[in-house]
Amino acid sequence: MKKKENIEIMFALGTHRKPTIEEVIGKIGEKIYKEYSILYHDFRDYKNLKYLGKTRLDTPIYINEKALQADLLIGIGMIAPHRVCGFSGGSSIIQPGISGEETTFYTHWLSAQYSGIEILGKIDNPVKNEMND
């Protein structure tokens, strides 16, 4: 079956490993897996990342270039309390989801400077604010 043109699905893996085919099919179904091109973000693949400058706190911004070229991006994920950024979801689909290693290093290092009680379950916190920037 021919893959549908102009539509690609990218797994925003952050720093996580590439899923197995069985895991992908379990997540999106076999029909979608067969009909669409599936991409997997690799945070260490700098030839496919674009540098966009720095945030106000000097975090270097590297983003997956394929995502930047898209006319439309739809981020799908869950929202749950998270020790590093307060809550997953929202800007987390970009950072760390489709960001480079250096970008993720900076935000995770920022998180290490705060206690869990200052971050976990808080929407407004220094780390999430940096990720939003």
Task: Give a written overview of the molecule.
The structure is a single chain. The chain has 133 residues and is an alpha+beta fold. The chain has a single domain, classed as 3-Layer(aba) Sandwich (Rossmann fold). Helix content is 31%, strand content 17%. The protein is built from six helices and six strands. The strands form three sheets. A two-stranded parallel sheet has the order 1-2. A hairpin with a 3-residue loop joins strand 5 and strand 6 (86-87).
Write the layout of secondary structure elements.
Elements: E1 8-11, H1 21-28, H2 30-35, E2 37-40, E3 49-54, E4 60-64, H3 65-69, E5 81-82, E6 86-87, H4 101-111, H5 116-119, H6 126-132
Helix pairs in contact: 4-6
Short description:
31% of the residues lie in helices and 17% in strands. By secondary structure, it is α+β, with helices and mostly antiparallel strands. The protein has a single domain, classed as Rossmann fold (3-Layer(aba) Sandwich).
The CATH class label is: Alpha Beta
Biggest sheet architecture: 2 strands, parallel
Bin the strand percentage. Answer: 15-25%
Whole-number total of structural domains: 1
Q: What is the mean predicted local confidence, pLDDT?
A: 93
Number of helices: 6
N-to-C order of helices and strands: EHHEEEHEEHHH
CATH fold topology: Rossmann fold
Distance linking N and C termini: 41 Å
Give the full name of the CATH homologous superfamily.
LarA, N-terminal domain
* CATH architectural label: 3-Layer(aba) Sandwich
Count the E strands.
Answer: 6
Shape, per Cα inertia axes: globular
Structural class determined from secondary elements: alpha+beta
Unreliable stretches covering 5 or more consecutive residues: none
- Helix coverage percent: 25-40%
Q: Strands of the biggest beta sheet: in what spatial order?
A: 1-2
What is the radius of gyration computed over CA atoms, rounded to a whole number of angstroms? Answer: 16 Å
